[in-house]
Write a structure and sequence with these properties.
The protein is α/β, with parallel strands linked by helices. The protein contains twelve helices and ten strands. The longest helix is centred in the middle third of the chain and has 20 residues.
Length: about 300
């Protein structure tokens, strides 16, 4: 790739990453009965916890659940530092609601379900803040896709993961996008072709989750990671997250060109210089969390 194209790529990327934190995302819908599907809470540090709350339906990702999640993920995001996704009941999420996928609903409805699901999954990685999955119980099909789409995933020892769509005649093609990018190809294909669940330890071994903890420590360990994120600069984290996902899609040399340019821009930020000064002066940094350049 030419240097000219590389510079063009960075300039396009810069417009997204180095703009002021205003209106990163907009709400797609306001779910009138959101409380039925999720429970949302926030603490004083800016950590939002979104709890899937439809255990009778195994926290299925119905169209209404997906729209509610979209709203939960986007509303007031500029004031947040991290988002935790967890669930109520023994099943973290069973994936799509199969009752919505019969011929009775029709092709247009089915298209809406999968388009909305894909939008939610993509949104997680497009947000300027980390999204952490805190997984207990079973996560299957689109539920496993949701875990794989998160930036970090902490699993309880008893958690299980599967893509069993093939068993009911509906191959997990959309979950395969996220799962196939998180685990080695042959592991993904075995999961997809057999539908057999894998353990939390196997999920850790293959990269689907980042940590496995005893069941009773899941909430505490997830909170520790979110708290640690809150100790850093929001603006720097936003730049780092966007850059990470952008460079993953590039050829190695082009990825280095992009990330080198981003690091130079990062150093020009107020928080970039504050962190270095604090290290030199042996003190804790005082973050502004602003997209403010000092040179």
């Amino acid at each position: 790739m030419s240097a000219r194209l590389s510079l063009s790529l960075f300039r396009s990327f810069e417009k997204v990453v180095f703009k002021p934190n205003v209106g990163h995302v907009r709400c797609m819908s306001q779910a009138s009965a959101a409380e039925q599907y999720t429970k949302v809470s926030e603490d004083e540090k800016g950590i939002r916890t979104i709890q899937l709350n439809d255990p009778k339906k195994r926290n299925a990702l119905s169209l209404k659940m997906l729209k509610t999640l979209h709203n939960n993920l986007t509303s007031g995001v500029d004031d947040l530092r991290a988002i935790i996704l967890c669930s109520t009941g023994p099943v973290w999420s069973a994936g799509h609601d199969l009752k919505e996928l019969t011929s009775k609903e029709g092709r247009e409805y089915h298209r809406q379900v999968f388009d909305t699901c894909s939008e939610v999954m993509s949104l997680i990685q497009d947000l300027p803040i980390p999204v952490i999955a805190s997984v207990s119980g079973l996560a299957t099909a689109a539920g496993a896709q949701l875990v794989a789409s998160c930036d970090i995933a902490i699993a309880a020892q008893s958690a299980r993961f599967a893509t069993p769509g093939v068993s009911v005649g509906l191959f997990c093609s959309t979950p395969a996008v996220a799962v196939g990018r998180a685990v080695p190809r042959k592991v993904a294909m075995e999961m997809l072709f057999t539908g057999h669940p894998i353990t939390a330890q196997d999920a850790l071994l293959h990269g689907l989750v980042s940590r496995v903890v005893p069941d009773h420590q899941l909430e505490e360990e997830t909170q520790k990671i979110a708290d640690r994120i809150c100790e850093t600069s929001r603006e720097v984290v936003a730049i780092g997250k966007a850059t990470f996902y952008a460079q993953m899609n590039l050829e190695r040399k082009e990825a280095y060109r992009l990330t080198s340019a981003v690091m130079v821009e990062n150093l020009s930020l107020e928080d970039g210089q504050e962190g270095i000064k604090a290290f030199i002066e042996k003190r804790k940094p005082t973050w502004s969390h602003r997209n403010q350049k000092v040179h």
